[in-house]
């Protein structure tokens, strides 16, 4: 079983910046440089729409060194797939360019919302994230007929590999629509056009489980490790292993982390992201209220 040591709350929800009204959700990070790590997150404005920002984390001091004064990405045009929120999910470096994959939110009528995966790129010459398209890069198709969300992308031997959550439909809970989604797999040659064949990586464990989302995949030699969010009554962090990144074995009991007896992460834990720094492996995650109480972190015993 993986052992973790919690380090406590790192980024408050909301963070102390003018553009954030509530939340610090769905953390993900860049590789540390000079002892500092860029920790990205999404906060909501006074209309409940997500904007992307970041905190600079001093790993030596275990503290926040600063925040982005303005959002890095904000909601799109009225009527676009991301007009009600741009929630970051992962960042991939390809040469000198950075590819930001994010969750675009729009409101529904028969169901509460729709989400799709968008992409924005920041180049060395232009230090701004610009959308590759006004449309999502993962639209609805025969494999994903309802919605797509929460991508994690890595590049291996020239192939872009994505693990993401795909909606399987909407159920009913106390007369209200209940979303259902599980973790699937896609590939690409350029990070923009994706091939999807309905490959399911993490499926529901039982009929009470309805939300499997926000995977984070790390490769250790010949072993792929995935941390992800799993939800029945409330969110917990799951864990799985694979030899090829496609066929996975769930080992949720080995996640090594659970809710605390009290405090900011006593009700739920979700949206994990794992980052290595030297001999240390850190896990960043959200607690109560889907990031309403902020972002915490833990050290994984390797």
Task: Describe it.
- The chain has 302 residues and is an all-beta fold.
- The protein has one domain: Glycosyl hydrolase domain, family 43 (Tachylectin-2, Chain A), CATH 2.115.10.
- Helix content is 0%, strand content 57%.
- The strands form 5 sheets. Strands 1-20-19-18 form a 4-stranded antiparallel β-sheet, with no helix packed on it.
- A hairpin with a 7-residue loop joins β8 and β9.
- It is globular, with a radius of gyration of 18 Å.
**What gross morphology would you assign?**
globular
- CATH level-1 class: Mainly Beta
The appropriate CATH architecture is: 5 Propeller
Uncertain parts: none
How helical, in percent, are the residues? under 10%
| Corresponding CATH superfamily | Glycosyl hydrolase domain, family 43
Work out the strand percent.
Answer: over 45%
Which H/E pattern describes the elements? EEEEEEEEEEEEEEEEEEEE
**What is the CATH topology descriptor?**
Tachylectin-2, Chain A
């Amino acid at each position: 079983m993986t052992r973790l040591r919690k380090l406590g709350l790192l980024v408050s929800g909301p963070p102390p910046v003018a553009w954030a009204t509530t939340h610090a959700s769905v953390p993900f990070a860049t590789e540390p440089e000079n002892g500092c790590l860029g920790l990205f997150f999404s906060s909501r404005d006074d209309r409940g729409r997500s904007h992307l920002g970041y905190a600079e984390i001093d790993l030596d001091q275990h503290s926040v060194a600063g925040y982005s004064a303005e959002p890095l990405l904000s909601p799109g045009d009225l009527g676009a797939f991301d007009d009600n929120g741009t929630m970051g999910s992962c960042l991939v470096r390809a040469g000198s360019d950075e590819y930001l994959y994010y969750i675009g939110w729009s409101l529904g009528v028969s169901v509460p919302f729709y989400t799709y995966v968008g992409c924005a790129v920041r180049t060395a010459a232009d230090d701004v994230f610009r959308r590759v398209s006004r449309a999502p890069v993962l639209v609805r198709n025969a494999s994903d007929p309802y919605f797509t969300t929460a991508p994690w992308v890595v590049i291996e031997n020239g192939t872009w590999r994505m693990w993401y959550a795909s909606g399987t439909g909407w159920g009913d809970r106390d007369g209200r629509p209940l979303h259902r989604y599980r973790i699937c797999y896609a590939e690409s040659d350029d990070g923009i056009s994706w091939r999807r064949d309905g490959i399911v990586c993490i499926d529901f464990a039982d009929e009470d489980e309805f939300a499997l989302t926000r995977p984070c995949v790390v490769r250790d030699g010949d072993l792929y490790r995935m941390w992800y969010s799993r939800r029945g009554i409330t969110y917990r962090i799951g864990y799985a292993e694979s030899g090829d990144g496609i066929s996975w074995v769930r080992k949720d009991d080995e996640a090594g982390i659970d809710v605390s007896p009290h405090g900011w992460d006593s009700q739920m834990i979700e949206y994990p992201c794992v980052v290595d720094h030297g001999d240390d492996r850190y896990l960043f995650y959200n607690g109560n209220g889907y990031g309403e109480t902020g972002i915490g972190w833990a050290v994984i015993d390797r």
